[in-house]
Amino acid sequence: MEKRKKKIILFSLVFVFFLGAWASISLRKLKDRSVNYELTSDLKNDIQKETKGFTCHEIYKYSLTKTSEMLSFSSTNNLRNGKANCVGYAQMCASIANYSFAVNQHKCKAKPVAGYVMLWGVNLCNVLICFMPSEKWKNFVKDHDFV
């Protein structure tokens, strides 16, 4: 019984730590990126049907879900074939959101940006750079794209 109690306490402490870390993550914008992904006509038709009557907040959630359903992670962008890194994810998500806003006559706007992921005031991109084995990978983690 004593061993079980220690495991529960340890699990609880780890859970609280990760919950605190998650709540402390923030994104710091450095610069804007252009939205240069053109949606296909089939995708536009799907988006128009699927978002009919959505609020701005519902469109925001929809664009995140739709993007994650359509893409899988890759070190290079090939959006037409469903492969993307953070730059491609942000561009597609912003394109989906902006088209959805337009067809639902909302004045909202989404744009991809580049910046840092911060945890407790520490730039996690700089931390990751220290652990990368080559210049290629250091350049890959130097910043992060988000919408």
Number of strands: 6
Order of helices and strands: HEHHEEHEEHHE
Give the rounded overall mean pLDDT: 84
Q: How big a fraction of the residues is strand?
A: 15-25%
Helix content: 40-55%
Number of helices: 6
* Main pleated sheet: 4 strands, antiparallel
Low-confidence regions: none
The class by helix and strand makeup works out as alpha+beta
First-last Cα distance: 49 Å
The value of Rg in angstroms is 19 Å
Q: Which word captures the global form?
A: globular
Task: Tell me about this structure.
- With 147 residues, this protein is an alpha+beta fold.
- Helices cover 54% and strands 16% of the residues.
- It has helices at residues 2-24, 41-50, 56-70, 86-103, 124-131, 135-140; strands spanning 25-32, 72-73, 83-84, 113-119, 122-123, 144-146.
- The strands form two sheets. Strands 1, 4, 5 and 6 form a four-stranded antiparallel beta sheet that branches.
- A hairpin with a 2-residue loop joins β4 (113-119) and β5.
- α3 (56-70) packs across α4.
- The protein starts with a helix and ends with a strand.
- The model has no long low-confidence stretch (mean pLDDT 84).
Features:
four-stranded antiparallel beta sheet, alpha+beta, two-stranded parallel ribbon, 147 residues, globular
